[in-house]
């Protein structure tokens, strides 16, 4: 049967709940009730853990202000996700200087093999 495009979901609430549950299990969707710290009347902060396999780019964050389970206000903003530290350095090296990255990888593999052999020789006596 050929696909003709998106079909209407019979029970969209059940579908939405299933998607949220799957994303929560994968660590890709979080509901952090009470995780917001008010700094003063209009400034707030919240810490969010992002998955390690997150792709760099711009993401949309939706913030809901709730009272007694009802949404009373919402705000949408962009969050720019970038690699930092050694991950950023390795990513740039692999994409900008692949030959150097390959030689560095080879040197690390040779050193790790030599170190493992030396450790096993020392354990054997």
In words, what does this structure look like?
By secondary structure, the protein is an alpha+beta fold. It folds into 2 domains: 70 residues, no CATH class; 40 residues. Helix content is 42%, strand content 22%. The protein contains 3 helices and 4 strands, in the order H-E-E-E-E-H-H. The protein has a two-stranded antiparallel sheet. Strands 3-4 form a two-stranded antiparallel sheet. Helix 2 crosses helix 3. The protein is elongated, with a radius of gyration of 24 Å. The model has no long low-confidence stretch (mean pLDDT 83).
Structural topology:
Blueprint: H1 12-25, E1 37-38, E2 44-45, E3 57-67, E4 70-81, H2 85-96, H3 98-124
Antiparallel strand pairs: 1-2, 3-4
